[in-house]
Amino acid sequence: MRKVVVIGAGHNGLVAAYNLRRRGFCVSVLEASNKIGGMADTSEIFGVKVSRASYVLGVMPKPLVELFEIPVIEQDPYEVIVYEGKPIALWKEKQRRRKEFEKAGIERYSEFEQTLLNFKEVLKKFTFVTKPPSREEVLEEAKKVGAEDFLLKSCEALLSRYLPKELHYSFYYPGMNNSSAYLVAYFFAEWQVVKGGMGAVAQSVFKKALEIGVEVRLNTKVERILISKDRVLGVEADGKKFEADIVLSTASPVATASLLCHAPNFRFEAGKSNWRKHNVILKSYPKPPDVIKGYLNSLIDLESMGAGEIVFPSLCDDTLGGKVLNVMGELEPLFELFPDLKDCIKVVDTLTPKLAEKLYNLPGGNVNHLPMKEPYLFDERPKKGMGYRTPIKGLYMGGAGTYPGGQVSGVPGYNASNAVIEDFEQGEL
Asked: Amine oxidase domain location, by residue (predicted)?
């Protein structure tokens, strides 16, 4: 039986481990911290459960949500965008959703969304793959449905055709203006709260992995990947050697590179990160402004007001043990929107790139491991010619730094493990 060591017990590592074990491999997962999940993390603060890093689930494909029985709490509308002092509700039913934009005076939204959904159908063909597609391959398919602009134009250029500038950051993140409009489609999703916090994603996968015999070792920090003549031999962790035929790292490519003593092809840049996530435990809920009354169970997009995104997960999840507000952005603008918010706050836990780097072994504090822009898209993520496989035989990568990229999706781990299975079945391992 082939032995596999998976580096990292984040959601991608656990998905990979489960998939490999159910195909007959002997799998050990080594995790440096004292808990599973990575940034899919539920932490307790003053006895209240909070999704400390990631806070909503949206880009995980339905087959994986169902396979691992992720306890998603369905909300409709799933998101509300505040624009010019009025709410635009994103309902699951597309015609109802499009009427919201029409009422807001955004006449070309329906045309934009239909092209977007056509492109997302193209992307589905390239979701579960063992070799990342090239931009050219995706472009060829996109042209067939008239959605090639998502690859030929930048985020800003594409959206400027359809939407007012004030709405752009509701469809891509700041700093991605000049990146491929592919990212607009990547981040367009039905965002939902997970019961028990985002740590429940990892716990759901962990439970199934344990049931079929995956070994998970916590507090076991991998210090070196052992190789000889371009062939992996295992890893060294906490001064001990763990022999393995296959090593699959779901750590950042930057962190993975640091574990190799001599591998000139492994050089990656995490880029600079500038974000803030506030986990606010409340004594009581603040009085909501009229613009979002009736929508407090949804993800609330306040980008046009410079306040990022907020969600009150405890309003739809009674298992958290308290009242919780998640803020991806700055707190100050919220004090104007919620005049009584300061009086309602019990404690604020703030996560920054520097702290995330320490807590989650996240070089540069980059939540996506590598920048979500050129040259780190499609088969250039993490590097042209690599994909999930590396030049070192038996060494694979399957974290957010591989295709298709960041967010809690499980796709990189799933695809990387299938690449291992494919190579084994073809006698290449």
From this structure: 13-257
